[in-house]
Amino acid sequence: MTKLQGKVAFVTGGSRGIGAGIVKRLAEEGASVAFTYVSSREKAEKLATDSQSPGVNVLAIKADTSSDAEIDAAIKSVVDTFGRIDIVVNSAGLFITGTIDAADADVAAFKKQWEVNVHGVVHTVRTALPYMGTGGRIISIGSTGGSRSAYAGIGDYAATKAALAAYTRSWARDLGSKNITANIIQPGLIDTDMNPADGPYSSSMLQSVALGRYGNPTDIGAAVAFLASDDAQYITGVTLNVDGGQTT
Known about the structure:
GO terms for molecular function: oxidoreductase activity. The chain is an alpha/beta fold. Helix content is 39%, strand content 15%.
């Protein structure tokens, strides 16, 4: 019997990279999964088709996490299809860099990043909660940058992830009486399109990683599956670094 058999999960930003790794693992563990994507409809629908199996349905929904209306519609679609939500995984995120003294700072991009990485997560959780019963799981994908500033120019991004960690600790208190847990996973260097293992700066960044290599989206998917399972029923308000020892 798989750990999440019969559960229903909603994953934002699930069509590629870390999000796709999460969708695949949750489905492998028996959960039916609905996930959002912004572009690449063909890729999203292929992921949905490939992840399905007998008793496991996977649904791709086009929705921008920065849009309250689109998230509202996505969650309504999940509930209309599956009847409830047991697991919420906040994976959608933007990575916009730039130092505070940059003369050409793209302020609009930084604002959009905040809308997706913070406001969108908060709105998703608030909207999903009425459809979550006892034993529900809220899992957000943060970043090791949320607790350390390893590189110049990541202040705006790091601030969004630090905010998510603070929200997570508060939600653990807010929802404890309902037996709903809230935890945050902070990935380190994960091999994705956003930060490929063969990128121009990978060699220098790896110097801080104890294991000396990049992780894979499957590593994050495994951590999410664990926190979503009954094995983690007494874990809440926790920040879990999945970073190969980068923050040791």
